[in-house]
Design a protein that fits this description.
By secondary structure, the chain is an all-alpha fold. The chain is built from 8 helices and 2 strands. The chain has a two-stranded antiparallel sheet. A hairpin with a 4-residue loop joins strand 1 and strand 2. The longest helix has about 40 residues.
């Protein structure tokens, strides 16, 4: 009976260690990507957003008042999803910038000197990181500002349409149009370009053959594994960006259904 007990103890200890590792990995990923986990109540999500975005007490109180109504909760959930998506783009392009700098050398693969190509790819990813960062901050400000109140549809005792109403509806659709354009025309091609360049030029910044054995062999294997994972990640995010663009377009169209025609 001792053997089964030892086996059970070993399996339990391995499960506990694996669970602890996954929990630490999840916490680290949340910190790196700025992901705001959805709490059991909107109040818990607001507290988490306050810690990550550095909101003051007045801003937190504004959000608590916002989520007291059903439309406010819908607006809050939508903005949180958009903030998380922008923060994920920011981390993804920062990862790609590091990968392009350290693990991609297209010039070596083509036996030509193209140092400006590496610099251009790194700088492009850093610029996209900045774009996603400022988009995230703008979304946080828009969340705190709350949904824009629409003017009355009609005026003069409901006898005439109110042009200000349709203009306000069109203004509320601009965010979705910009989001769809960024996802489809900016982020999506960037992910695929990163994946293609990593596939073509994956190599550590120092050629493995110049590193003493067995460290060169180990570095080559680690580089291959890392770049393969990043390439698969970029392809997945490119596909997801196309889907996010489609959802943003659908939301833009849904806003236009409220026009008073």
């Amino acid at each position: 009976m001792a053997e089964p007990e030892k086996l059970l103890e070993t399996v339990t200890s391995h499960y506990t260690a694996a669970r602890g590792f996954l929990a630490r990995l999840s916490a680290f990923t949340a910190r790196v990507t700025f992901k705001i986990p959805k709490g059991a109540t909107p109040g818990e999500t607001i507290d988490e957003l306050g810690r990550r975005a550095g909101l003051n007490e007045e801003e937190r109180l504004t959000l608590h008042v916002l989520v007291r109504t059903k439309p406010g909760v819908a607006f809050f959930d939508e903005k949180i999803q958009s903030i998380n998506r922008a923060a994920f783009h920011r981390s993804a392009f920062a990862l790609n910038a590091v990968t392009q700098l350290l693990f991609v050398d297209m010039a070596a693969q083509f036996y030509v000197s193209l140092p400006m190509l590496k610099i251009a790819l790194v700088v492009a990813n850093l610029l996209l990181t900045a774009v996603a960062h400022f988009e995230m901050r703008a979304l946080v400000r828009a969340l705190i500002a709350g949904p824009n109140a629409l003017p009355p549809k009609r005026r003069f005792f409901n006898m005439f349409p109110n042009p200000d109403y349709n203009r306000a509806v069109k203004r509320s659709s601009r965010h979705y149009a910009r989001s769809a354009w960024k996802e489809k025309s900016l982020y999506r091609p960037a992910y695929f370009v990163n994946a293609a360049s990593i596939f073509i030029g994956a190599q550590f910044i120092v050629p493995p053959e110049r590193i003493i054995f067995p460290f060169g062999f180990i570095m080559a294997k680690v580089t291959g594994l890392f770049t393969t994972l990043v390439m698969i990640f970029d392809i997945w995010r490119g596909v997801r960006a196309g889907e996010d663009a489609r959802v943003a377009r659908e939301r833009e169209i849904a806003v236009y259904r409220d026009l008073d025609i």
